[in-house]
Design brief:
19% of the residues are buried. The chain is 79% helix and 0% strand. The chain is elongated and about 150 Å long. Helix 1 runs antiparallel to helix 2, helix 4 runs antiparallel to helix 6 and helix 8 packs antiparallel against helix 9.
């Protein structure tokens, strides 16, 4: 279509030039002989040929230009198409990457949460009755804010209850285990802690005219301790050995925790000495019981 239009345009232009040339020559012929007129017309006709050739050249050049422009347009269109395809590909990759990135981030979060949960768990053992020093020691916590007479009275009253529960546990040993090591340990516990109960009962009376508690269940933590004792009574042999060691290690650690409060809470040499004896004896017994757990392949 464009070439046809350009051709018609060029032909129209050529005809116009020829007519114009003829008009000029006709005006001149009025003053010239007829031969001259013929010569002029021939010359004009001859001159038109180069013009026609020139116009044809122009047409060809225009066609070439048009073709070139068409090629350029085609190239531009191809470039645009390629760019659009690239853009779509980039968009597709971005869309594909987004869920992956999201998933990766979710995985990292989950792992962090999992790591955070693992970090928060030390000290907690839901599979056994063992209590770490910081996990469950309400008796020691109940003493921390007390001072002077209030501390000393409550410390002795609660330690008496605590010692008595250890003696009750130790009394179960001979009938429930065949291990001589545990039988000897239970005898030592009963002997040492019975003496300490007697000493503290006397100090309560002489220093403060006070008595041991009659309701042991009022002492923080004793309800849970008695519940464990009920389970221990029904255990035998290896099961008893395992439960007894778990419970007594935890029980001894609580006594050590309470005794560690004494130097900063009292100036009475009797209580300070009592605390030192408790820490020394019961820390040694804790280490001995742990070694038995390992040697006997019992759950800690």
């Amino acid at each position: 279509m464009k070439r046809s239009f350009l051709f018609l345009f060029v032909m129209g232009l050529l005809v116009s030039l020829v007519l114009a040339a003829c008009g000029d020559n006709t005006s001149t012929s009025n003053a010239q002989p007829a031969a001259t007129v013929g010569t002029t017309i021939a010359a004009s006709t001859t001159s038109a040929a180069p013009t026609t050739t020139a116009m044809a050249g122009m047409t060809t050049a225009a066609g070439t230009a048009t073709t070139t422009m068409a090629g350029m347009a085609t190239t531009a269109a191809a470039t645009s198409t390629t760019a659009a395809t690239t853009a779509r590909a980039s968009t597709t990759m971005a869309v594909m990457a987004t869920p992956a990135a999201t998933t990766a981030m979710a995985g990292m979060t989950a792992s962090a949460s999992a790591a955070g949960a693992t970090t928060a768990m030390p000290g907690m053992d839901h599979g056994s009755t063992t209590m770490t020093p910081s996990a469950n020691d309400p008796m020691t916590e109940s003493l921390k804010n007390l001072t002077g007479q209030d501390f000393e009275v409550k410390f002795m009253q609660e330690m008496i209850v605590h010692h008595q529960s250890a003696i009750d546990m130790a009394k179960l040993v001979p009938a429930n285990t065949k291990r001589p090591e545990l039988i000897k340990l239970s005898q030592d516990i009963i002997s040492a802690q019975t003496k300490e109960i007697t000493d503290m009962t006397g100090w309560l009376a002489s220093w403060y005219n006070a008595k041991p508690l009659t309701d042991s269940m009022s002492v923080p933590g004793m309800m849970d301790m008695m519940g464990q004792m009920d389970k221990l009574k029904d255990a035998k042999d290896a099961q008893f050995d395992e439960m007894f060691l778990q419970m007594m290690i935890s029980h001894h650690q609580q006594a050590v925790n309470m005794a560690n409060l004494l130097p900063g809470k009292t100036q009475r040499p009797e209580l300070v000495k009592l605390g030192q004896d408790i820490i020394k004896a019961q820390t040694a017994e804790i280490e001995q019981m742990k070694s038995w757990q390992t040697a006997w392949k019992l759950k800690a």
